[in-house]
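It is worth pausing here to work through a concrete case rather than discussing structure prediction in the abstract. The textbook approach is simple: state the sequence, then state the predicted structure, then interpret. We follow exactly that order.
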Amino acid sequence: MAEWLNMAWQASSSEGGLWCEDGGEQLWLGTLEGVYKVTFDDYIIQGVKGELYPCKPDIFAATYEKV
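Step two, the predicted structure:
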């Protein structure tokens, strides 16, 4: 797991955290714009200032390169 993703898992929701609810059935991500539900096929991307966002696969493929 990438260190930045591990740090998000350890952070609170108000700090841009990543967490599960409903016994691990739902994954949530706190972002600068609010809280988003992350679906199974979403990518989690890191912005230029370290902020995290979920990204749908079609948007990712058109915009980014996997690393």
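Step three, interpretation. The chain has one domain: 3-63. The beta strands are 18-21, 26-31, 34-38, 43-46, 52-55.
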